[in-house]
Design a protein that fits this description.
By secondary structure, this protein is α/β, with parallel strands linked by helices. The chain contains 8 helices and 11 strands. The radius of gyration is 20 Å and the shape is globular.
Length: 260
């Protein structure tokens, strides 16, 4: 999905997040079969409110690589989905100034019963590529994903690593100003991860804005100008990656990393 965002000429920021909050209702009792419904027709399900994000505010200048780190469940993926428009925030606002290409969940939109060849054509079309553009870039997509031998194999027979290679190879063919990446390096072998990191260098040279969620702290330190640490849905620190990573690893905020 490529989201064509509102563009203003006066702002220096590609992305502005202001006071974003999000909560989910968690059911305490779930009836999953018709038998349970008939046996207990009057039994009510109660819900608990789980706060996923609270008071998130930051701005990302054009051309900046911003890393977002934190433990599982800290709200990283929820935040990216709100920026991408997949989730709607309960409070606050998100302002995008450019063409957004979110790479949120690997392989979303793939049909496992179809081959890589067919999935490339379908997903390329959904991402806004014309038939001619897909044909022109087809060999490059397959080559980057290193799937030449498996192009006519159904995706249900692909490993998770093969699927992530294909998904990322398609995603980087689309024009964008702002790219959201969620754990793109979590799946795939070392060789492909290094290939992805080389595309990051190309994005930087082109002045692309990248918001990068990852547990790969070394890559966050290597590529990002700033990093944000999320803890239990709140911004715990923001600043130079080395300082924010140190806070994450040791529970301390030093230097320019600011506790919030």
């Amino acid at each position: 999905m490529v989201r064509r965002a509102h563009v203003t000429e006066d702002t220096p920021y590609a992305l502005e997040v202001d006071g974003v909050a999000k909560a989910f209702a968690l059911p305490h009792q779930r009836r999953t079969t018709l038998k349970e419904v008939f046996l207990h027709p009057l039994q009510r399900t109660t819900y608990e409110r789980q706060v996923a994000l609270e008071g998130i505010s930051f701005s990302v200048p054009y051309g900046e690589f911003l890393g977002i780190i934190g433990a599982n469940g800290s709200g990283k993926s929820t935040l990216l989905k709100i920026i991408a428009g997949i989730y709607r925030q309960d409070q606050g606002s998100v302002q995008l100034n450019g063409l957004l290409s979110p790479f949120i969940e690997l392989g979303v939109g793939f049909n496992p019963e179809l081959s890589a060849r067919d999935n490339i054509r379908i997903n390329g079309t959904l991402l806004g590529l014309s038939k001619r553009e897909i044909n022109q870039r087809f060999d490059e997509i397959i080559g980057f994903a290193e799937l030449e031998r498996f192009v006519d194999q159904k995706l249900k027979n692909y490993s998770s690593g093969m699927q992530v290679r294909l998904a990322y190879s398609i995603a980087i063919q689309v024009e964008f100003d702002i790219l959201l990446l969620d754990e793109v390096l979590a799946v795939g072998d070392q060789s492909f991860q290094e290939k992805c990191l080389k595309t990051f260098e190309g994005f930087r040279e082109q002045g692309k804005t990248v918001v990068f969620v990852s547990h790969d702290l070394v890559s966050v330190q290597r590529f990002c100008e700033r990093a944000i640490l999320l803890e239990h849905g709140r911004m715990a620190a923001v600043g130079p990656p080395d300082e924010v990573v140190d806070r994450y690893l040791h529970g301390e905020t030093r230097g320019a990393a600011v506790a919030l």
